[in-house]
Amino acid sequence: MPELAEQNKTLKYLIGGLVLAGIIILIYSWVLRPKPLSLPPIPEPFPIVKIDFDFLGSQEVRDILPFEEIPLPEEIGRENPFAPY
Q: pTM (2 decimals)?
């Protein structure tokens, strides 16, 4: 008989814990739910961006361009790299 009373007591605590956990989850999901994110207002109209492409052809830009490419040597390595010297 004491085992049955002990099982009922354990069952009561399990049910009470599950009910408490359910109540906490409901409170968290309904009351403490995060507010939806909203985007800040975007000013209208957008500013117009004008790109001056004539500047790309100026002497200042040509001065910072890379040098001419150096050609690679015509023969690279040995004919048979595994042959002894």
A: 0.37
